[in-house]
Amino acid sequence: MERYIQAFVDGYSGYARYLVHEIANPGWHNYFYALVGLSLAVWGLELLFPWRRDQPVLRQDFFLDLFYLFFNFFLFSLVGYNAVSNVGVLIVSDALAQLGIRNLVAINIQSWSVWAQLFTLFIVRDFVQWNVHRLLHRVPWMWTFHKVHHSVEQMGFAAHLRYHWMETVIYRVFEYIPLAMIGFGISDFFVVHLFTLAVGHFNHANINLPLGPLRYLFNSPQMHLWHHAEVMPDDHPTGINYGITLSIWDYLFGTAHEPYVDSHLKLGFPGLDTFPRTLTGQLGLSLQPTSQPHEPKTTSLETADLPATNTGVAHTRFGPLRARTASAG
Ligand SMILES: [Zn+2]
Ligand SMILES: [Zn+2]
């Protein structure tokens, strides 16, 4: 038990020191300034190439999302996730040791070039996250938390990181074993985090910058807006376009849906009008689902027959960067 307590304390103080160090030391290899710089860059593109020209620069919930941006990227880790995940990793490895399993590594890629290893991490994690995102839409208690992300009504880059902290926990848990099974020879995945953060911001941005044929490979604002649509197609009542960074999984597995380009799709989910609007209300969501993932929407004649909705995003689920790096390495 003392080891677990020590792991908790080390995780907490280690992350606090790390964050203070990041803020105090600007540079190219710095998560804090990368988040600030990328956010300003994508916001600049929104102003230069707006898709919905009638959308205010400071759109609805802009400041709420700005808070989520920093909360989910940094503060949540600072206030405890890093500490809790340290303990979790210790408990899992102790449990595996009891079963005689001391090493989860099934594929060793240490001898590969750095870029090949980064590429492998990116592909494996994006595919795992695509699957987790599907679960978030299908499992009622997970959907309860994921609704925070789908409560966005006016889309913009900062909505990327609007999500309940429980999502970070869910993504980390599902990523842990697949990534631990790969023996990486590097522990610095900064460039992958940066790339997925940039694409995630772009997917949510109010930007009209068509990708052409690349849209079959990468997620885009046009495709992701359909993911956030209030009403889902009949043949995919629980959701569509689950891609995080890559859209290719949706095309491969038949969940891609982009019938036409519509910059003013109605976003949200049935019952959004009674969903908490404040930060404290959203973060305090209980574990008791208030609705099923796809409860029928019957509020209008046009949509009465549709199996309703859900939807959601692409998010880079950055969360605890150090913990993630540690689990990956
Ligand atoms: Zn979603
Ligand atoms: Zn989204």
Automatic annotation (TrEMBL):
Key words of the record: Lipid metabolism, Membrane, Oxidoreductase, Transmembrane, Transmembrane helix
The lineage's top-level taxon is Bacteria
**Name under which the protein is recorded:** Fatty acid hydroxylase domain-containing protein
Q: Name one GO cellular component term.
A: membrane
Membrane topology reported for the UniProt record: Multi-pass membrane protein
Comp. bias regions, Polar residues? 284-313
User: Where in the cell does this protein reside?
Assistant: Endomembrane system
An example GO BP is:
membrane lipid metabolic process
Domain Fatty acid hydroxylase, first and last residues per copy: 120-255
Q: Which organism is it from?
A: Rudanella paleaurantiibacter
Coarsely, its chief localization is membrane
Q: Which GO terms describe its molecular function?
A: glyceryl-ether monooxygenase activity; iron ion binding
Entry-linked InterPro entries: Fatty_acid_hydroxylase, Sterol_desaturase/TMEM195
Q: Where is this region: Disordered?
A: 284-329
